[in-house]
Each structure stands twice: as C-alpha cells, then as structure tokens.
Design brief:
- The longest helix has 19 residues, at 218-236.
- The mean pLDDT is 96.
- This protein has helices at residues 47-60, 75-87, 105-112, 128-141, 159-176, 191-202, 218-236, 263-276, 285-297; strands spanning 16-18, 30-35, 65-71, 90-96, 116-120, 146-149, 182-184, 186-187, 208-213, 248-250, 309-314.
- The radius of gyration is 19 Å and the shape is globular.
- By secondary structure, the chain is α/β, with parallel strands linked by helices.
- The chain folds into 2 domains: 16-45 and 156-327, Rossmann fold (3-Layer(aba) Sandwich); 47-153, Rossmann fold.
- Helices cover 38% and strands 16% of the residues.
C-alpha cells in the first residue's frame, strides 16, 4: 500500500490484548481490545490516526492555521488543538453549544493549549461550515492560510487513518493467532468505521466490521462512507467498488442522544473499570461496548450471532468522563 504523506504523531502500533476477567455469562466469547486510547496520552484516541494524514496534507498546502469543529467536549477538537500546539500551528475551533461558565474535560484542555474558540449555538449549527469558510477568508486577509478539517477529520483524507490501522490489525491477528468474527468500533462521524471497512477489504481481514452508532442512523453512515470512498478513489486514483463495501451499522444504542447516555451505559463503564481497569466514555466507547455485549447476549437472535472472538476498537474519549461524573453511582 502506498500511503500519502503522513506525520508520525501517534504511538504506534497500539496493543491488542484480550480482556482477562470480564465475561459474558453463558457465552464462550473472548473479547479483544485494540487499545487506540493509548495512541498518545493528551491526544489519545482514534482521531490522531486521521490527523497524521490530515495535518500532513494541510502543511503540504502551505497552511499555518487549522480550523475544525465539533461539540463542546469534542475529542477530535481537543486532539487537533494539542497537536497544533506541539507543531506550532494555530488552531481555531468552532464548538457546538453555549460557552460554559467553567470549562471541563476536553474544553479545558482546548483552552490550556491556546486554541482560538468560537461557540455556535445548537440552533445555528447548520451554518458551521459557512462560518469556517468565513474564518478562512479572515485569516487570508491577515496573511495566513487556513485549512478546514471537517467534523472528526472524516473525509477522503481522514479515511487513510484507519486504512493504515487495518494493516496494523492484520499484523496483530497474525501475531496473536486469531481470526475474529467481528471488529467493533463506535461510529460518530463515520471516519473510523469507513477506514476499517475499506481497509478490511484491501487487506483481506477476517471478521465483519460492525459499528455501533452514537448519533444519526445506519442510512446516514452508509451514504457518508460511500461518498467519502468515492472522493478517496478520485483523489488518490484508487480502484475499489464502493458498492461492494459491507457497511454494517447497528442501531438502538444512541440513548437520549449524542453526548448523553442511559444509566445502563454508565453501569457498563464502571463495571469494566472495576474488573479490568479499562476506561470507556459515555459518548462513544461506552455505548458501543454496551451495545456489543447486549447483542452477544441475545445469541442467535442478536446481531452478533455465533461470536467467539470479537475485537473491540477502543477509540479513546477518557476526558469526556469527567463532565458527566454526576451520572456514576457509587455505594
């Protein structure tokens, strides 16, 4: 595989290890965790894999400013802000929601590393791309060149992050002598899921990529991924029939909405932390892990039937736990 220019920003490869004590009663299933929460402390998580390619592309274009967007507690925005500080690139964030009185979690880190932040109320969020283009013009007038990174760095460039991760997974499976039945990530903007779907096909990975959505619906992710793959093929002169891609998104675990979770998800997060010392978050990984376990428990009636080896892709998100600490109950 010939990859485009990329920056070596993440600590790779990340480990693939089995859960030793967490079990699903009455089901002989081994759950393996791809630890992408360990890609690099303050910028841990899946976003850094995409940003290795995205920021390299921006620098190749001569950009000295990065503009990106997301929720107030966006992991992607936090990762972009920190990498910008490390690389000496100005970062301007457009965050969905009102400015909180006391910043916490990811937002606190955004401020600490000096990111410029514009808050856009939820009712005006439909204009965030328009605002990003306005900011690009403003920076141009100031003698700078700004590159706009879409939500989650999910586009034809960001796809490379988890295409490369798929090659890494292939080596992991060979090293550990496993042939998983399913590869399970959370999906929020579709970039991680899309990269894994494409990479799985390119590298002939065993197991089906099955994602649990934390927002939107399965139809959205099907359309978004096929659209990104079409642009990816065109931009990089790649041959792949996007109509043949197996894009599987399991619905039903979004809960109250994006960024909020049911009490069962918080119970799952606390249980896994206590039993395995593994921390999930209530926005992405907690919902996906809870959904995965629930579907396995349904047996043949569930959407992960006959699972014996399952790889859960831990995409990070630890800093999103702290703003929701009131939802954890301790005796």
């Amino acid at each position: 595989m010939k990859y485009p220019n990329r920056l070596n920003l993440a600590n790779l490869p990340t480990p693939l290890t089995p859960l030793e004590r967490f079990t699903i009663p009455n089901f002989d299933v081994k759950i393996w965790v791809k630890h992408d929460e360990l890609t690099g402390m303050e910028v841990s998580g899946n976003k850094i894999r995409k940003l290795e390619f995205t920021i390299a592309h921006a620098l190749d274009e001569g950009c000295d400013v990065l503009i990106t967007c997301g929720g107030v507690q966006s992991n992607h925005c936090r990762a972009t802000a920190i990498l910008g500080a490390r690389l000496g690139i100005k970062v301007h964030l457009i965050l969905r929601g009102e400015k909180p009185e006391h910043p916490d979690g990811n937002l606190l880190m955004d401020y600490l590393v000096g990111a410029e932040i514009s808050f856009l109320p939820q009712r005006e969020w439909g204009k965030h791309v328009e605002l990003a283009h306005e900011l690009q013009q403003q920076y141009h007038q100031q003698g700078s060149k700004a590159h706009f990174i879409p939500i989650g760095a999910t586009d034809e460039i960001g796809l490379w992050g988890y295409i490369a991760a798929s090659e890494e997974l292939k080596n992991d499976f060979e090293t550990n002598g496993i042939s998983p039945d399913y590869i399970v990530p959370a999906t929020g903007s579709g970039g991680t899921q899309g990269g894994l779907v494409v990479g799985s096909k390119l590298f002939d990975l065993p197991g089906q990529v099955v994602a649990f959505n934390v927002c939107d619906d399965a139809e959205y992710f099907d359309n978004k991924i096929r659209e990104d793959v079409a642009f990816w093929k065109q931009s990089y002169n790649m041959e792949l029939n996007e109509d043949d891609l197996d894009i599987c998104t399991i619905e039903g675990y979004v809960g109250p909405g994006y960024g909020t979770a049911d009490k069962e998800v918080f119970k799952t997060i606390a249980e896994l932390a206590r039993i395995e010392g593994l921390f999930l978050d209530p926005v992405y990984t907690g919902k996906a892990f809870h959904g995965m376990v629930n579907e396995i428990q349904k047996g043949a009636e569930g959407r992960l039937p006959r699972a014996s080896n399952v790889v859960f892709v831990h995409t990070g998100g630890l800093f999103g736990v702290f703003p929701q600490q009131q939802n954890f109950k301790f005796d």
